[in-house]
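Fold this sequence, please.
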Amino acid sequence: MSLRTLGLAATAMAVLVLATPALAAPDPEQAPILATVQKFFDALAAQDSTTIRGIVLPGGVYTAVRVNADGSTKVSRRPVDESFSTSIDPGLNERMWSPVISRRGPMATVSAPYEFQLNGKTTHCGVDVFSLVKSDGAWKIAGLMWTQEPAACPELKAQK
């Protein structure tokens, strides 16, 4: 191999290395963000409205978007302060998978497919979108929006 060929190969390698984006370090806030969302689900299953009120900021809104069989949608909104104010119905269980976290400073969103069960029976699946804010050193849920799609479970579960 000539020096010229060796030099060209070295130059090409240097260009490739410089053009390849550096692998970003994992965000250390992802684990506490997901832990807050999981704590919400665990409190829901445990009928623990006190814990939910402790991790949800007052003044937020829950928004449910139900997709009807005819393709139309029904949007229901309720203030966080009115939801889970006293007790939670027994038998509720919700689990998510494949969460996607987006964070900028003290603001984050978590989007994930989920399955909702009542007394062990799946009633629907959908996509949750949590908005969170880091306040006084802790991640709090500022709001939650979700779809309610009774026929979407097979499709969403296939994305695992």
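The helical segments are 3-19, 30-45, 49-55, 153-157. Residues 49 and 84 are 5 Å apart (CA to CA).
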